[in-house]
Amino acid sequence: MESEVKLQHKVNFRWLIVFALPTILSSIFSSLYSAVDGIFVARWVNTDALSAINITMPMTYLASALGMMFGSGGNALVAKKLGEGKVREAQEDFSLLMAVAFVFSITLSVLCFIFLNPLCRFLGSDTALLSYCRQYMIPVLISLPFAVFGMVFQLSFITVGKAGLGAVLSVTGGVLNIVLDWLFISVFGWGLAGAAIATSIGYAFPSVTGVIWFCANRKQILHVVRPKWRLKTIVDSCVNGSSEMVSVLAFSVITILFNRILMNLGGSDGVASLSIIWYAQGLFGGMFRGYINGISSVVSYNFGRGDKKQLAAVFKVSVLTLAVAGIVVMVVSYFAGRPVVDFFAKNNENVREIALHGFRIVATSFPMMAFNVFGSGWFTALNDGKTSAILSFCRTVIFMVIPVLILPQIFEMSGVWLSITVGETLSILMSIYYFSKYRTVWRGDE
Hints:
Elements: H1 13-44, H2 47-83, H3 87-114, H4 116-122, H5 127-142, H6 144-159, H7 163-187, H8 191-216, H9 231-240, H10 242-305, H11 308-335, H12 337-345, H13 349-362, H14 366-381, H15 385-411, H16 413-437, H17 440-443
Helix pairs in contact: 1-2, 1-7, 1-8, 1-10, 2-3, 2-5, 2-6, 2-9, 2-10, 3-6, 4-5, 5-8, 6-7, 6-8, 7-8, 10-11, 10-12, 10-13, 10-14, 10-15, 11-14, 12-13, 13-16, 14-15, 14-16, 15-16
């Protein structure tokens, strides 16, 4: 077994970016799963089917929420124990969390199958879209445990210094999804169900491979062993990862709320437009989440060692990097909005115009989103789940719900898109406050 963890390195810009790059790519490809479905469905089926994908999307978010909770919170705890030299205990905790995540995901999938029709209607489906929602939902529910495990293992690969392998598996799953989308939809003519099956297989590949790798590779410092029951481990991991879970779950609630408002303002075309904007936002948000997920084990490890100099270096590099990245993404998004929208809605002029107008408004939120995603992930990596959860809850619930309930009353559909930017602006003020309040954790006594 390797005796050293590949996390002990002097922090600088180049090393941190190289360390995080595989996870950034993996996160982007994970976001591509549903985006690719949207492109094929919009072009080979219709925009009503695209609306159905957006209506059922909260279930995919729910799977991601569970995966982020166990993966982010659990790996922060495991990396911290590795930094403290508690290797065996870290292995037992890792194995315990895998077992608990499996039970949670299976239970959730079964419950959703039992209440499928009421669930679809609750998510925003009307009678006309119900059959589409069922077609997409059934394969997605079957793959839900794979989606949860895939997220957990992706973060675990980072902890053992194998982020590159995790990236390869994620990219392979994404490529597989793209190829199967083309095969199932445009060749076999399976329609919306074909898109869901392709996505499910894309999720299953890295998940199953991750299970095999962590069970069979006993030379790694972190691998599956016989778990030892520790309720505190489960509670601490869930609490610490709750911010990421709250963030994704709240986004599911926001999606349902947005769908209902847009259905009233623009019908199914309005919901289809939101799907396009969510896909684009998901890709850029995936890049930012990939960065903080990629460096989180470095943060947790150095926090466990009490190395504030390294932590301060990580924070400084991250803030500067995200400032540049956020501005670049905003500019590119604004000027490249039309070709992005055309990928999805070339055959529906009304959807295309609504989505393009909304996308250009939402693009102004990307620089703030970069810092807000970093803020929540930063405190999770420091094992401060409480602060992280506060930031996530305020950003994804309070600062998003209030604007979207008020602004559409004044600006109609433009108010829906503007509420996203307003929410991110309010959130960044809170992030700055908590960075200032707890800066001594990584900058030493002042």
